[in-house]
Amino acid sequence: MRQIAVGVNGSSGSLAAVDWAAEEAASRGAGLQLVNASLWPEHQVVAVRESRDVRTERAKALLVEASERARTRHPDVVTATEETEDAPSRLLLARAADAELLVLGSHRAGGGSGYVSGHVAQEVLAAAERPVVLVREGDRPAGDGRVVLGLDVHHPADELLGFAFDFAARREVPLHIVSAWHSALPHHRDGAAGSQAAADLRTALSAATEGHRTRFAQVDVTEEVVHDRPGSSLLDAASGAGLLVVGRRTRRAMPGTHLGSVTQAALHHVACPVAVVSHA
């Protein structure tokens, strides 16, 4: 059975992730795999004092609670649980490799609207080859629940477009696609040169999405070319959205937790769930 994996650590953010993942599993007709690595960083101080048996029992209890929570909301979704004493990022990446989607919980960044994703989430987001969705407590679709997709028309990856169109089609919500362009040169921003640049981008955007618009003809799609920095334009577009979808280009020569400025801006400032889709 197709699977959606979700990390469970007992935080309010992870329970919100369970809720979101269960709804997505029901929408896809997929199973839900709830995983816990008992050495979560926020539990390390406690883990030093606890015996292995105590940590294991606590982790199992968290998974039982999460599983019951998911089944209560979506009884038809088949759930499975896994607890292991391992590095969380290693476990999550392993399960993400076998799943269609990995869902992680987070919490609000201070008094703002963005996310604090933590080192584990940063590692997973930077390395996962499957889509990863970050969910925070209180994140619910607002307004029309629309999906907002940030698209670089110079790299219009099928993985990114496919994820956004498929999600919008299954949830029966509109899809708004934003492509931003920015130039520090005044003559490239204004006048004939600026107008031509914007027109060229609109043409390229339409061409990039044509196949998916035909395939998902039931989706209400709007396309927008914005003269602004990509991060700023996405934050504006995502206001009141149900989901923001951004891409992460694979950088095999760049190990670590580098996510790119646009993705970082989205994670730090956006007020809805964020899907990060890896692509070549």
Report a brief summary of the structure.
Strands 1, 2, 3, 4, 5, 6, 7, 8, 9, 10 and 11 form an 11-stranded mixed sheet that branches.
Q: Find the CATH topology of the largest domain.
A: Rossmann fold
Low-confidence stretches: 41-45, 110-116, 253-257
Going by CATH, what is the homologous superfamily of the largest domain?
Answer: HUPs
Proportion of residues in extended strands: 15-25%
Give the class-level CATH name of the largest domain. Answer: Alpha Beta
Helix content: 40-55%
Named CATH architecture of the largest domain = 3-Layer(aba) Sandwich
Supply the number of structural domains: 2
Q: What class do helices, strands and sheet pairing give?
A: alpha/beta
First-to-last CA distance: 27 Å
Shape descriptor reads elongated
Mean pLDDT: 83
The number of strands is: 11
Number of helices: 10
Question: C-alpha Rg, in Å?
Answer: 20 Å
For the sheet with most strands, the description reads:
11 strands, mixed
The run of helices and strands is: EHEHHEHEEHEEHEHHEHEHE
